[in-house]
Automatic annotation (TrEMBL), chains A, B, C, D:
This is Regulatory protein TetR. Coiled coil: none annotated. Residues 12-72 form the HTH tetR-type domain. It comes from Sphaerochaeta globosa (strain ATCC BAA-1886 / DSM 22777 / Buddy). The keyword DNA-binding applies.
DNA sequence: AATGAATGAGACTTCATTCAT
DNA sequence: AATGAATGAAGTCTCATTCAT
């Protein structure tokens, strides 16, 4: 390994250490109380050095959120191959989404509460046409279509249904994060019920 | 009116002025940037005097959130009398909830993202037994029962359903708040679809 | 004295203490090295309190310059009543200007080197029409006119002459400030020669 | 060319690049905001390397000022050969000085405001005997002598006159730099009047 | 010759809070 | 009831400089 690659790797590691420290603080005291000083203390360096790796605090926060969001979407995307049955696919997707989100609670909460243009740009899914632009909504839409073969589906309604499902899942997830002291058993019960039954009910058009 | 009651009333007014100022700041610059100084500037008093009415900043924030939550639940409670039809009741409740929440977006978002014990104490509804302790969940549960007369309902499942509906509604509301630049027409379409159709579908047990 | 006036006076005193401290620092280490911290240390208060009296550092610097400039112009204005002889008036004005400036060397140097609009607004005197707008130039112009009774004076030239004299005087003053280690005797010789002879020569039109 | 000389030349070039970068920064954001980092960024090297060529920041600033001053005096020196007429020589020298100075406004202003020993060492000219040690003063003195052939000139007075002229010219130049938004026409008028008429009047002893 | 990591000091500023009046 | 003075902690950031490589 050349000196340069080694240096780059070290720098990369430092960056990750900084982000990790920030993440920790976020999980302990809340995202809003992340500070350069606290990060520095955690990584046992002076605050100044942080500016060697990030140009300012904002960049750190951005990357933090981005990495969180990325993790979520990638793990979600990988879940689609699991089943051929649309109902099960929807179930698994929902469950995966919730479980992955619960691994990065603070970032998830922030990402989905933040309404700054920069974040919204990535996270919005209520706009008309979201089922084309947002992979997750698209995937849900496909499940819905497959689950209602005999129906004459109006495109707009299907999208609205998919969006509702996504919003509902996100809502439950946020609530699970906020109520972090909920008993494990109850937590499991809710996740099971929601992803196994509720979500399917939402996706299935009521028989006439 | 005695001098004392008058004083009390004045004090009450001052408290409300302070909270109102805080609310304004929250809506303008975000909840996190509420500061004693800014409040003082807004009410045109010195920062010190605020400590006459509140023992510290936290108390102000708490009461702010509480009042926001209160407004929401009271307006919700009043909606129940509107209809005798459980389906319509659920529809109206949902719509009312969303609309009222959109009037106090910042506080709503905060209340439902905050996971500090003090807030959670009031806002949690995923715990087992919530349909007894939480008016809103209780009301939803009643609607569900009325809407599924012929079913043999397992108590636990009904509560889980009610909780899911509540979480879903909250999720959609949060998303609507975050995506504040959504077009009005689309916003309306989503609210209509969700409260008129989606929520009913969630509440109705699928025929066997 | 009412409590309020007393408070105001105290506040005024504090402001002046702060400015005095700043002035001292400026004279010791240079204007550029004035810092809130150093001021605080000098007045034996915490840095924070300074923001009680000035909204930021800039305001302090501005007032510092302004006060320096003010002192100069007022002392200059008072010199005009001394003599009825225009030649002597010019001499005295010049001398007064130099001597007063040497009492506030740093501020003088700054004020007359600074080219920021805010400062220039007050200190510029090379523009056309300056003999109407600038008291000092106006006074010099009057001396020139009185000193050249038999000449047919072209207005524009008189102003240019006045401006040249002002610039020359300022230049010498600046140089005296910069060369602060100049021997007193030599310093005196130069000031004497310049204000007694040179300036008169500049003001007198050469006989044809 | 030997390797060594080549190295030296490279080193020399690097030094000049550094100084050039510093000069640019000075002209853009002001002399005071020159920083090692900014220089480094401009020459596209790391800050550290600068310490290879200069032992610290101060040395850079010093050389910067010195080089500016040098440029000025050399261009001044070259003007003397233009005319045999002492009056015209003085005129041309004055004009050249002003014009050259206006090409390096920031450095000129700094050089002539700075009172640190290192700078003063080069720029002072008010001391007794300056007409021997300072080329410019010497040249002015010679012009004065040539312009007043019939006078019995007292040596001291001639030097004082030369010094006054130099200070006056410098003063006008500084003022022209500070009032950078002065209209071009007016600027020209002043420079013309000062160098064509004023300076001659200063140099010529009044007839008895 | 050149780099990148690191430091420590210091810059301005905002904040919540206390206290005497 | 209300003020104004004051503090101390914390915030972000910039800087000159050193050192090992």
């Amino acid at each position: 390994m050349s000196i340069q690659t080694r240096r780059e790797r070290d720098a990369q590691k430092m960056k990750e250490d900084i982000l990790a420290a920030a993440r920790e603080i976020s999980n302990q005291d809340g995202f809003a109380s992340i500070s350069i000083r606290k990060i520095a203390q955690k990584i046992e360096y002076t605050p100044s050095i942080i500016y060697h790796y990030f140009s300012n605090k904002e960049e750190i926060l951005e990357q933090l959120l981005e990495s969180g969001y990325l993790k979520l979407t990638t793990s979600l995307a990988s879940s689609k191959r699991i089943s051929d049955n649309p109902e099960d696919t929807l179930r698994i997707m929902t469950r995966t989404y919730i479980e992955e989100a619960l691994k990065i609670p603070e970032e998830f909460a922030i990402v989905h509460s933040d309404s700054s243009p920069n974040v919204i740009k990535h996270t919005s899914f209520l706009f008309e046409g979201a089922s084309e632009k947002r992979k997750a909504i698209h995937m849900i839409k496909k499940c819905i279509i497959d689950m209602n073969p005999q129906e004459e589906l109006e495109g707009g309604k299907v999208e609205l249904t998919a969006q509702s499902i996504a919003a509902a899942t996100m809502g439950l997830t946020l609530k699970l994060i906020a109520e972090k002291n909920l008993e494990e058993a109850q937590k499991k019960k809710i996740i099971d019920y929601f992803s196994d039954e509720m979500v399917v009910r939402m996706a299935k058009y009521p028989g006439k």
